[in-house]
Design a protein that fits this description.
The structure is a single chain. This protein has 613 residues and is an alpha+beta fold. It contains 13 helices and 28 strands. Strand 10 and strand 11 form a beta hairpin. Helix 8 packs antiparallel against helix 9. The termini are far apart. 52% of the residues are buried.
């Protein structure tokens, strides 16, 4: 049986247009280029035999200990090998690509050095292009340069002394020894098919790339306004959100991977390398809350362009997700030749949920636009008002809901909540910036949505707001009710809802989205607790004033982060991470939870002590 590393035993490196996962053993087992959503070059994470990989590690012995960490406040990943013969490390990095032009070449650098003793390393580079559907040939140019050629893309492999490359069929292997103070490098460059080979890597250029990469990330982080109690985790989450944002368009993707299962052996395996209006809007708001405004402006421009372009697969003014360049077509195909992570099939590329109707996206979009400090950031006001006027005619209908269930449309309470947000933020923008709009109608629709949620979304039986109007099932997405301003965090109806969630959806501070058994979603199998919801729960507790419970839940959630501070989508029954990795939703929610908890703890600590007479 094929073997796979745990999902959480990975770090991520990227250049703001693509990203690669590096396992804790030093293997690149996921890399797509030239974009996040391009076909793979390495994909052994989805089929350890067929998918392709690039391993670079100390020659295996039972006595070698491996540790992985990031260079502080950067996306430079260090994999350290320690044993009786010596200590060495591999530094993986991709220098961020400046500007907004899509790059044809993407360069991943692997620097090897030994700091004590002497260590022998092995290299194996076995690309499998186009999700292992395309064959390739090998051109071993010389002992330091090899080119893997396929019909649609090439991979150039270059090394420095003393690494001598050897052909292994159409792949490359090498074995070399370094002593204390010595170093070597392997440079991987993706390009279009038939592109010329880059010049041989020189140590001066490699050192310059390393310094530029380090300087970029440390300079970018200095813009953060966060000075709270969890700076390391918040910084790592911010870097992760930035790594998952496609710089040429400003579009954040949901995760770097596709096909990683929500249940081992199950069918809940989706392609997350696209831009969801919802996830992206909330990601950008999290970055804005940290003081990063450039990303917000870029995303708002991308969002305006989508609204102006039309032509959606769903026929609605906006669709729930797009490719990073704004293409609305995401045809879903099963890659049946891949066995899937730990035999979790099918492996899907594309996403069939793209044509679903999810009315909540208009609320997230409006909330993102409402964060603009001036009207220059929402120059497409006419287009925006057209969206809201359309919503005024179309909000009161069933949809598939935030969780993209494939079990039929319902009148989801969360969708209604976010249509209320869409009207509320639009009214606010029109009023504050004196822009022309049918504010009277928007106000009437906002109030109608509010009344409907209170009357039909509330269950007297459960004494809580519920998932949709035809059920008594609870739904953790409603943890956003107070943050969105629909209810005060101390409103009795909200406190009762939170208590009901505590009893049904919370397990040792970890939160399930909903109960699929009680509310069938059209898919087989179960899933783990949802990290987004666990952090939303922390934020809700903090705003409600349950600070000790909130802090305890937050600190427990942080123990589920992997060794370099990253989270997947879910936590499984044994504490393992499940789903695509790393996941933007989780990291944005960590940021907002930390900010909320800091603010509430500071408020309590700043209150004067009570006196007794």
């Amino acid at each position: 049986m094929n073997t796979y590393p745990p999902i959480d035993e990975h770090g991520i490196v990227g250049d703001l247009q693509t990203a690669a996962l590096v396992s804790a053993a030093g293997t690149i087992d996921w890399w797509c280029a030239p974009r996040f959503d391009s076909p793979s070059v390495f994909a052994s994470l989805l089929d350890s035999e067929k998918g392709g990989h690039c391993s670079l590690a100390v020659e295996p012995t039972s006595a070698v200990t491996v540790r992985q960490l990031y260079l502080p406040d950067t996306a430079i990943l260090l994999t350290r090998f320690s044993g009786p013969d010596g200590v060495g490390e591999v530094a993986d990095f991709m220098e961020p690509i400046r500007g907004t032009e899509p790059a044809a070449r993407h360069r991943l650098v692997r620097v090897v050095r030994v700091v004590r003793g002497s260590l022998t390393f092995t290299l194996a580079c076995r690309p499998r292009f186009d999700y292992a559907r395309a064959t390739h040939t090998l051109d071993l140019v010389d002992e330091r340069t090899a080119v893997f050629r396929s019909a649609t893309a090439d991979l150039h492999l270059q090394s420095t002394d003393p690494i001598t490359l050897h052909a292994d069929g159409a792949d490359i292997t090498a074995r070399f020894t370094l002593s204390a103070g010595e170093r070597a490098a392997v440079v991987l460059t993706t390009s279009s098919a038939g592109a010329g080979v880059s010049s041989a890597p020189a140590w001066t250029s490699i050192a310059h790339e390393f310094d530029q990469c380090r300087l970029f990330w440390q300079t970018w982080l200095r813009s953060s306004t966060y000075r709270g109690r969890w700076r390391d985790m918040v910084n790592r989450s911010a870097i992760t959100l930035k790594l998952l944002t496609y710089a040429p368009t400003g579009a954040p993707i949901a995760a770097a991977t596709m096909g990683l299962p929500e249940q081992i052996g199950g069918e809940r395996n989706w392609d997350y390398r696209y831009t969801w209006i919802r996830d992206a809007s909330l990601s950008v708001r999290a970055l804005v809350d940290l003081g990063f405004t450039e990303e917000a402006y870029a995303f708002r421009r991308w969002l305006r362009e989508r609204a102006e372009a039309g032509g959606t697969a769903s026929g609605e003014p906006l669709q729930i997700m797009y490719r990073v360049d704004g293409d609305p077509h995401l045809d879903e195909v099963a890659l049946t030749h891949l066995e899937g992570y730990q035999r979790s099939a099918p492996v899907r590329v594309g996403n069939g949920a793209a044509d679903q109707i999810q009315l909540d996206i208009y609320g997230e979009a409006a909330d993102a636009l409402a964060q603009a400090s001036d009207m220059a950031a929402i120059a497409g006001w006419r287009t925006f008002t057209g969206l809201i006027d359309w919503l005024a005619d179309n909000w009161d209908r069933p949809d598939e809901g935030i969780w993209e269930t494939r079990g039929g449309r319902q009148e989801f309470t969360y969708s209604r909540l976010m249509t209320w947000v869409a009207f509320d933020r639009s009214i606010r923008m029109a009023t504050e910036h004196a822009r022309p709009a049918d504010v009277t109608r928007w106000t009437a629709e906002r109030d109608a949505v509010f009344r409907q949620i209170v009357e039909r979304g509330w269950s007297d039986k459960r004494q809580a707001f519920v998932q949709h109007y035809a059920t008594d099932v609870l739904d953790a997405s409603l943890l956003l009710m107070p943050r969105m301003g629909f209810l005060s965090p101390t409103d009795p109806m909200w406190l009762s809802t939170l208590d009901a969630m505590d009893k049904e959806l919370v397990s040792d501070s970890l939160v399930y989205r909903y109960d699929p058994a009680a509310s069938p979603d059209g898919l087989r199998g179960a899933e783990g607790t949802f990290n987004l919801c666990s952090f939303l729960y922390v934020e809700a507790l903090a705003r409600t004033g349950r600070l000790q419970q909130a802090r305890y839940a937050f600190d427990k959630m942080l123990t589920y982060a992997n060794h370099v501070g990253l989270f997947a989508e879910e936590i499984g029954p044994s504490g393992e991470q499940l789903g695509n990795f790393p996941q933007a939703f989780t990291h944005l929610a960590l940021i907002t939870a930390a900010i909320a908890l800091d603010e509430e703890l500071d408020r309590v600590e700043d209150e004067p002590p009570s006196t007794t007479h």
